[in-house]
Amino acid sequence: MNPKSKILIIAGSDSSGGAGIQADIKTVTTLGSYAMTAITAVTSQNTTGVKSIVPISPKEILNQIIFTSKDIKPDAIKIGMLHSNKVIDAVIKSLDNIKVKKIVLDPVMVAKGGAKLIDDKAIKSLKLRLIKKVTLITPNIPEAEILTNTKIKNKEDMIFAANKLLEYGAKNVLIKGGHLDSKFVHDIFVNKSEIKIFNNHRHKTKNTHGTGCTLSSAITAFLSCGKPIKKSCELGIKYVSFAIKSNPSYGKGHGPINHLNTMSISRKFR
After folding, report:
1. Can you tell me the distance from the alpha carbon of 66 to that of 77, in angstroms, rounded to the nearest whole number?
2. Which pLDDT belongs to residue 116?
3. Which class does domain 6-261 fall in?
4. Which pTM was predicted?
5. What are the residue boundaries of the structural domains of the chain, listed by start?
């Protein structure tokens, strides 16, 4: 089959393959789209934690985005790890240059094992400048707490935080509820005209490495193919839920999910 759309992914590399650009490429590919990349950082990590982070220069990040997009124009963009204020400056400059309308931002700030992936100046720049440029922002609860300077303990707090992000200039917000201690996972979609709560069964597993990267990439894939924003969130959440449920149990720590859960192999390759 031919790709349904073209997606540019701006994110960091995860050497273990469970999160970051690796998870993004797998997700976009299995959902039928063509993945292009701009690498923002190279990390040495595995399922137990992050050993090191080597940033890519802002100039080279800008070059990757603009040079790639001038040849193959993306239908949508997914943005992940942006580790510094200068990197965010470069990304904003490149977005103004290539003028793609459908953009999903996953504000990656903390790794699953607890390591901080972004500095304070970058957090401020993301909140005050980049958030206004994107179609959707998809923070988890710790990220939403950092961005809004609030404590989130329940669904009402999630909605309050989402509305604060709208005040900062966000068009659409999806706050992921996986960090709340509840039987169901509540992901809440909010914009100026509606609130939608997606309720899903919680899968009892520690293997959830890369769920945020995967979800934002899945949403971008559906959005790039013409699905409405709320429907794209619904389908992305469903894809991640199946990927968690069918995880392969790799590694000694927080293992990866199964990005191949939607893929059926053609008979000629069996």
Report:
1. 12
2. 67
3. alpha beta
4. 0.95
5. 6-261
